[in-house]
Sequence to fold (195 residues):
Amino acid sequence: MVSACHRRVHGGELRSMTPLKPVSPEVLAAAIEILGTTGISKEETENRMRAIADDPMQARRLIDFIPEAFGLVLLAHNGKPIWPTKFSALDTKGESRSFPLAVEPIFDSAIEAAQSMFHEDRPECFQNIACRSAIMGAANNLLKAGGSIDGAVVSGPALLGIPAEIYPEQKTPWLTRVARKLGRWVAQRSDPTKR
Fold:
């Protein structure tokens, strides 16, 4: 049975039709404290996060999105990169799906919290969280290779532990769909084996 907030797409997979609920300020603050704790193991982080979250998927989203938001805020204070607007998640078939960052309410809340914390006198907590992000890892690799953050294109997070199906389906713009079909048609016409 499919609930009113899901529908079947892409050969029967369930896709959310409703936006995700934002987390409460208290849960966000508790998650930030957990992620900012020095010397905490990955397992302990996950256990503590599950204890404060409404469900295991919310715990996973807190663990994945908060560090990425903190990493972006840290980058913003150290250069002028080109910011990501999307993130990706794998669906049940293992295919990557792209979503606007705006569909993840934890990300928006975490950006605000990171901006506020950056200007507070808690640099160790902020750094502990930002250093967990893949975005900061990529920025550090770029700098070690002699590159510059200024003008660098920052890719959005590629999530492995969060299924794409929890996010609302994104409609592909009409012109993009037409361009893809036209591209496939041209490719078939130029391939003599497919005539």
About this structure: The CA atoms of residues 177 and 183 lie 10 Å apart.
